[in-house]
TrEMBL record:
The chain crosses the membrane at residues 199-224. Keywords: Leucine-rich repeat, Membrane, Repeat, Signal, Transmembrane, Transmembrane helix. Residues 1-21 form the signal peptide. InterPro entries: Leu-rich_rpt, LRR_dom_sf, PRK1-6/SRF4-like. The keyword Transmembrane helix applies. It holds the Pfam family LRR_1. This is LRR receptor-like serine/threonine-protein kinase EFR. The keyword Transmembrane applies. PANTHER family: LEUCINE-RICH REPEAT RECEPTOR-LIKE PROTEIN KINASE PXC1 (PTHR48007), OS03G0145102 PROTEIN (PTHR48007:SF76).
Amino acid sequence: MGSRDHLFAAAALLLLPLFSSNPDDERCLTHLSQSLSDPLKSLHNWSATTFTSPCDGSTSFLSGATCNNGRISNLFLSNLSLTGSIPPHLSNCTALQSLDLSSNALSGPIPPDLGSLLYLAALNLSSNAFSGPIPAQLGLLVRLSAFDVSGNRLSGPVPASLGNRTGNLARFNASSFDGNKGLYGYPLPLPNKSGFPGLAIVGIGLGSGLVSLMLSFIVVCVWLRVTEQRSENDEER
Ligand SMILES: *[C@@H]1O[C@H](CO)[C@@H](O)[C@H](O)[C@H]1NC(C)=O
Ligand SMILES: *[C@@H]1O[C@H](CO)[C@@H](O)[C@H](O)[C@H]1NC(C)=O
Ligand SMILES: *[C@@H]1O[C@H](CO)[C@@H](O)[C@H](O)[C@H]1NC(C)=O
Ligand SMILES: *[C@@H]1O[C@H](CO)[C@@H](O)[C@H](O)[C@H]1NC(C)=O
Ligand SMILES: *[C@@H]1O[C@H](CO)[C@@H](O)[C@H](O)[C@H]1NC(C)=O
Ligand SMILES: *[C@@H]1O[C@H](CO)[C@@H](O)[C@H](O)[C@H]1NC(C)=O
């Protein structure tokens, strides 16, 4: 090796740590890109080789991602016609401060694992097709100050850990939860009682059906008994 080669080797060693690789971010991005389908090819430069070192300090090599101290800190993937779902491994992006997947066509559940993203301050999943409950674990996110799951297909009660936060935690009003037919509880109204008349009508229908069935059964029994007695009488004669 000549001295020039030594120089190159030294330079390469010096440069290496700048292109920080992080196994957690790599796992997170790998799973995320596998779970998303990207028909408009907006994430054209999301490749496995980039996932090994997606950041150089605060420079990001991935469209839609920003970096801080060599870690993925924000994912802004709004309005890209994305389909697919959120992988639980998104929680491996442990330095994530904001996640915006709004206005896509994403579906499936919201993984409870997101409750372990300690630095998450903004979560926007609005205008998608997410279903299932809102995980109560999201209430563990003490830094969360912007939260939006409006316009999805979520159902069940709004967890008190999110709907009715206390102390220094940011509070969220109904606009964070609106537009999910199956969702109820503070700050949304309580379960819709209008379901009951419908049930009652079905009940009345079933009940009256049963009553008429029993009535016709009794009529048939009585008729059988009467004819039986008649034929007995006939035989006695
Ligand atoms: C990926 O795309 C983004 C924006 O489209 C750009 O800023 C970034 O430099 C690209 N990265 C590479 C490695 O091509
Ligand atoms: C969403 O993207 C489409 C193009 O794909 C654009 O026409 C539209 O204005 C965007 N909407 C918002 C709210 O940015
Ligand atoms: C990555 O995320 C998955 C799913 O939440 C979790 O089971 C796993 O422990 C995480 N890995 C690390 C190294 O934190
Ligand atoms: C979430 O994103 C939508 C656009 O997709 C925006 O209109 C809305 O204000 C955002 N919500 C919050 C809480 O920032
Ligand atoms: C919200 O929390 C406060 C304090 O914990 C409690 O007094 C109140 O009843 C709760 N409101 C609702 C609608 O759950
Ligand atoms: C609900 O909260 C949002 C901020 O998250 C705010 O912009 C909006 O004015 C609030 N709406 C009401 C009715 O308080």
